[in-house]
């Protein structure tokens, strides 16, 4: 995807010579919904200046284009040019395309939607000057720019026709926008797009080895350290979970580690390890899925994509903490060497696990990776991200990730970051009584609840994972719902969303 370029120019619509530049295709201004006593949508930020410079009645123009000022709404107005030899129009020499951008409440969430709508409305244009968000403060500007980059994103396509979509417009933010907010927004949104593109890659291409190679290539380009364990190294290392889950596939599993170390070390720097579920395709294995539920399962490595994009994004943003991504990558296939219900696996830390359903593969590869992180990486905080259970989607739908942790401060930090980033998390309980459901007669623990146990499937999965995080500060994000969207809406495309990257990057930026 071509990168979007943003520049900040201090000045106002009233005075700037920028608008007379031939390369500027449009001016975008903000409208808010009518308040009590207003006739219609109201000009905001530099919109009144624009009306004066253009010599037009902007509220009337908005009204005649049915502009309501709602967030996500953009009305494109093409102003007429004068006839040769006719009189001069007041807007002569200015961009003849005016975009009326609804900003709703003007808060970050609505500005993110405005940014996404603006990206769509200006695709294929050269430069767009805008005053939207010029009165909003850093959080608003950050959201606007995030929305623009996220809204401009298109999934990579192998279609031979029609030609690829036009690139996004170059954006000039006119006003006193904080440059740091713009940079942070672009970094986080680009990282999200990296996760999206990896997640929609078809599984015939996206084998564990392929994904490991991509991770290494992206990490090297960013100057990060990497390590890849192949099948032999996994066997030597005792990764009985990753090996079992990947055992039925012709494409063997991998475990990738990507490390970011900040240039300056400080006494308060922490080490955060993010483990991401990387199932490159989930057939369910021998406990095979019904065909309808299998279709979306190329995205079952969304957690690994999020973990990878988070460490890349943290490096790009110059986060003050050490960040390590651990990606257990495996294809959960049906095959003669597939693991079976009833098998007892020995995981990295020696824990034995009785398998009840080979479709609950995510917790198995995560358990290995969490145990490895706990034993070898000395994390101050351990976070895992996974499209783990259909139960999380049943409970929360697609707008919230399920958050599990026994650490209240960690919960508050992640919840706050989620609200700010526009990726909401909902804390769920680690109900101690449900641990009984995963007690085994033949091993240390059962992978899934005993027959006859009802409900709480996302919770029992979290309880299973908890024991592999040891005594570490640990949080688990079940993103089975929000990792995919059934329809495009605002900054979120249909299909893979990259959910989790922005909340984790925000949280890392604020972690003390
Ligand atoms: N990858 C699925 C979870 C999933 C389902 C993600 C739907 C996104 C959309 C996971 O591996 C799985 O199959 N979980 C099972 C667990 C069960 C067998 C205990 C599930 O949720 O049904
Ligand atoms: Mn599964
Ligand atoms: Zn899965």
Structure, briefly:
The chain has helices at residues 47-54, 58-64, 108-122, 137-152, 179-200, 208-221, 231-237, 240-246, 291-294, 302-317, 362-376, 390-396, 408-421, 457-466, 501-510, and strands spanning 6-9, 24-32, 42-44, 74-78, 97-102, 127-130, 170-174, 225-229, 254-260, 271-276, 278-282, 322-332, 344-346, 352-354, 381-386, 400-404, 424-427, 445-446, 473-478, 484-485, 495-496. The protein has 512 residues and is of the alpha/beta class. It folds into 2 domains: 5-175, Leucine Aminopeptidase, subunit E, domain 1 (3-Layer(aba) Sandwich), CATH 3.40.220.10; 188-510, Aminopeptidase (3-Layer(aba) Sandwich).
Folded structure, characterized:
- Helices cover 34% and strands 20% of the residues.
- It is of the alpha/beta class.
- It has two domains: 171 residues, Leucine Aminopeptidase, subunit E, domain 1, CATH 3.40.220.10; 323 residues, Zn peptidases (Aminopeptidase).
- The strands form four sheets. Strands 8, 9, 10, 11, 12, 15, 16, 17 and 19 form a nine-stranded mixed sheet that branches. Strands 1, 2, 3, 4, 5, 6 and 7 form a seven-stranded mixed sheet that branches. A three-stranded mixed sheet has the order 13-14-18.
- Helix 5 runs antiparallel to helix 15, helix 11 runs parallel beside helix 14 and helix 13 packs across helix 15.
- The chain binds ligand BES, manganese (II) ion (MN) and zinc ion.
- Zinc ion binds next to strand 11.
- The site of manganese (II) ion (MN) has 4 residues, from loops.
């Amino acid at each position: 995807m071509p990168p979007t370029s943003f520049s900040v120019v201090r000045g106002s619509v009233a005075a700037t010579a920028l608008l007379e530049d031939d390369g500027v295709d449009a001016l975008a201004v903000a409208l808010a919904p009518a308040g009590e006593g207003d006739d219609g949508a109201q000009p905001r930020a530099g919109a009144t200046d624009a009306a004066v410079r253009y010599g037009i009645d902007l509220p009337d123009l908005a009204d005649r284009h049915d502009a309501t000022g709602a967030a996500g709404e953009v009305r494109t107005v093409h102003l007429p040019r004068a006839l040769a030899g006719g009189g001069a129009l007041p807007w002569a020499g200015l961009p003849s395309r005016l975009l009326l951008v609804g900003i709703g409440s003007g808060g970050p969430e609505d500005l993110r939607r405005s940014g996404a709508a603006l990206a769509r409305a200006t695709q294929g244009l050269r430069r767009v000057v805008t005053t939207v968000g010029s009165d909003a403060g850093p959080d608003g500007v950050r959201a606007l720019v995030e929305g623009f980059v996220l809204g401009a994103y298109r999934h990579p396509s192998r279609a031979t026709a029609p030609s690829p979509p036009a690139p996004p417009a170059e954006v000039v933010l006119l006003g006193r926008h904080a440059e740091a907010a713009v940079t942070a927004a672009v970094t986080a949104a680009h990282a999200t797009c990296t996760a999206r593109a990896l997640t929609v890659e078809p599984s015939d291409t996206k084998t564990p080895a392929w994904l490991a190679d991509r991770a290494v290539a992206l990490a090297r380009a960013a100057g990060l350290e990497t390590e890849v364990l192949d099948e032999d190294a996994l066997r030597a290392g005792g990764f009985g979970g990753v090996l079992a889950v990947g055992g039925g596939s012709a494409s063997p599993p991998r475990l990738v580690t990507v490390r970011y170390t900040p240039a300056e070390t400080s006494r308060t720097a922490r080490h955060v390890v993010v483990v991401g579920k990387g199932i490159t395709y989930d057939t369910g294995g021998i406990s095979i899925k019904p065909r309808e539920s299998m279709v979306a399962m190329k995205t079952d490595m969304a957690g690994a994509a999020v973990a990878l994009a988070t460490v890349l994004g943290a490096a790009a943003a110059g986060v003050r903490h050490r960040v390590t991504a651990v990606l257990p990558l495996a294809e959960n296939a049906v095959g003669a060497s597939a693991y079976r219900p009833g098998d007892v696996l020995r995981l990295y830390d020696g824990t034995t696990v009785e398998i009840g359903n080979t479709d609950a593969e995510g917790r198995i590869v995560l358990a290995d990776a969490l145990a490895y992180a706990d034993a070898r990486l000395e994390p101050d905080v351990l976070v895992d991200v996974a499209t783990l259970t259909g139960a999380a989607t049943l409970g929360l739908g697609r707008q919230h990730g399920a958050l599990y942790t026994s650490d209240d401060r960690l919960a508050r930090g992640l919840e706050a970051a989620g609200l700010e980033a526009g990726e909401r998390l909902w804390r769920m309980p680690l109900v101690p009584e449900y641990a009984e459901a995963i007690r085994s007669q033949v091993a240390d623990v059962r992978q899934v609840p005993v027959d006859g146990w009802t409900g709480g499937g996302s919770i029992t999965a979290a309880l299973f994972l908890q024991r592999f995080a040891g005594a570490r500060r640990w949080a688990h994000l079940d993103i089975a719902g929000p990792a995919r969207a059934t329809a495009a809406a605002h900054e979120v495309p249909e299909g893979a969303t990259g959910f989790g990257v922005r909340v984790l990057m925000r949280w890392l930026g604020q972690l003390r």
